[in-house]
Amino acid sequence: MPEPSSAAQLYVREEGEGPVVLLLHMVGGNHTVWNGQIPSLAKEFRVLAPDLRGHGRTPAPSGSEYTFPELEADILALLDKKGIDSAYVVGLSGGALLALRFALDHPQRVRGLVVISGAAYADNHTRAIAQRWSETLAKQGPDAFALRLLKDLYYPDWIEEHLDFADAVRANAKRQDFRPAERWAVSMEKFDERNRIAGLRVPTLIVQAMDDQVVDASHGRILRQSIPESQIRILAETGHMIPLERPSETVEAIAGFVRATEAKRSAPARSEG
Question: What is the DSSP letter of 129?
Answer without folding.
Answer: H
